[in-house]
């Protein structure tokens, strides 16, 4: 059995340096903005996205060494991800993130929105300083996708007619786009050929989709200590995810719960109990595995077994978060 945590070992030193650099990079002159931003990075996170970038950089670089630009791209990606979480928490009225109070809960909503905007702006500045137009174009698309994804999700809340195809598209905007574009940008910085860049984009897209699907399963069945945020937030906010969409096919009585916009705790608990008694969770895991297999097939086109082992461990880790 693969030791899923071991993929961090080859880049342990780089991740420690990344954590140190993130706090230095926020550098806001305004003490409130600085405190709000530092609040996020002080408590870290899984660092999955920068880990993928650093591992991919190690493989794709001609000399097998991670370049300075790769390090900076990994930091930029984590700043963008963190900025999106700040805005997500405001929109979803989430009180806990990574086991601590969210920025808007600690400060206020206005400060949280401004802190998120500030982090997006900081990431853009560092991105521009990479002096690589193709990378700038690629990563800039992520911020556009995030905004479009939030609008789409908001317009679909409490919409019980959403299809799995629409859910997958929404999940791409939410998670897939950042991982996909980051993988492509890594390949660009490694001077890979265009078809290789595109293959790594597809790899990242499907890895990201699998990650989001497992996240959505954990929102139903996960432990708050593992996920770092309150469970059932999707249900409470009317955000229909794979487990619920699949469960609705078996248990139409769930429609009554979904269409209520002022959920009580007993409503949520009832819905979770119904979902657990369907095949919704298993079908969602199967869907995540399908996307992992597509991602792996793209790796197989590009990378020899020994080189891709740690990226295979990442795939395994994403699936085993649910177990």
Please describe the structure with a list of short key phrases separated by commas or semicolons.
isoprene biosynthesis; mainly alpha; 74% helix; Farnesyl Diphosphate Synthase; 323 residues; Isoprenoid_synthase_dom_sf
In a nutshell, what does this entry contain?
This protein has 323 residues and is an all-alpha fold. It contains 16 helices and 2 strands. Helix 1 runs antiparallel to helix 2 and helix 12 packs across helix 15.
What does this structure look like?
With 323 residues, the protein is mainly alpha-helical. The chain has a single domain (4-320), classed as Farnesyl Diphosphate Synthase (Orthogonal Bundle). It has 16 helices and two strands. It has a two-stranded antiparallel sheet. It is globular and about 60 Å long. The two termini are 14 Å apart. The mean pLDDT is 87. This is Prenyl transferase. It comes from Platysiphonia delicata.
Write the layout of secondary structure elements.
Layout: H1 12-26, H2 31-41, H3 48-60, H4 68-92, E1 96-97, E2 100-101, H5 103-106, H6 109-128, H7 133-156, H8 164-189, H9 194-221, H10 224-227, H11 233-236, H12 242-250, H13 254-258, H14 265-276, H15 280-302, H16 305-320
Antiparallel strand pairs: 1-2
Helix pairs in contact: 1-2, 1-4, 2-6, 3-4, 3-8, 3-16, 4-6, 4-7, 4-8, 6-7, 7-8, 8-9, 9-15, 12-15, 15-16
How many structural domains does the protein architecture include? 1
Given helix and strand content, the structural type is mainly alpha
CATH fold node name? Farnesyl Diphosphate Synthase
What is the oligomeric state here?
A: single chain
Unreliable residue stretches: none
Corresponding CATH architecture: Orthogonal Bundle
Query: How much helix, percentage-wise, in residues?
Result: over 70%
Largest sheet, in brief, is: 2 strands, antiparallel
- Shape summary: globular
What is the C-level CATH assignment?
Mainly Alpha
GO molecular function, one term: metal ion binding
Keywords: Chloroplast, Isoprene biosynthesis, Magnesium, Metal-binding, Plastid, Transferase
Cofactor: Mg(2+)
Protein name: Prenyl transferase
């Amino acid at each position: 059995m693969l030791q899923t945590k071991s993929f961090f070992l080859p880049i342990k030193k780089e991740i420690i340096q990344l954590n140190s650099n993130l706090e230095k990079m926020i550098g806001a002159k305004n003490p409130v903005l600085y405190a709000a931003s530092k609040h996020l990075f002080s408590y870290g996170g899984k660092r999955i996205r920068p880990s993928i970038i650093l591992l991919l950089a190690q493989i794709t670089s001609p000399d097998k060494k991670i370049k300075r630009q790769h390090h900076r791209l990994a930091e930029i990606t984590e700043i963008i991800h963190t900025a999106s979480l700040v805005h997500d928490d405001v929109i979803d009225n989430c009180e806990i993130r990574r086991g601590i109070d969210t920025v808007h809960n600690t400060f206020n909503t206005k400060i949280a929105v401004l802190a998120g905007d500030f982090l997006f702006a900081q990431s853009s500045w560092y991105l521009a300083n990479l002096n690589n137009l193709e990378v700038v174009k690629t990563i800039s698309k992520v911020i556009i996708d995030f905004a479009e994804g939030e609008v789409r999700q908001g317009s679909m809340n409490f919409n019980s007619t959403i299809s799995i195809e629409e859910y997958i598209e929404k999940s791409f905007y939410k998670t897939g786009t950042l991982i996909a574009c980051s993988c492509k940008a890594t390949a660009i910085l490694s001077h890979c050929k265009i078809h290789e860049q595109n293959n790594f984009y597809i790899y990242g897209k499907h890895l990201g989709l699998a990650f989001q699907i497992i996240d959505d399963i954990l929102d139903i069945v996960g432990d708050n200590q593992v996920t770092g945020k309150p469970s059932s937030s999707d249900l409470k906010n009317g955000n229909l995810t794979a487990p619920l969409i699949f469960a609705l096919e078996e248990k139409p009585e769930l429609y009554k719960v979904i269409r209520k916009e002022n959920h009580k705790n007993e409503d949520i608990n009832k819905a979770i109990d119904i979902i657990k008694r369907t095949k919704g969770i298993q079908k969602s895991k199967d869907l995540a595995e399908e996307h992992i297999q597509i991602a792996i097939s793209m790796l197989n086109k590009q990378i020899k077994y020994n080189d891709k082992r740690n990226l295979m461990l990442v795939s395994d880790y994403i699936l085993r978060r649910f177990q």
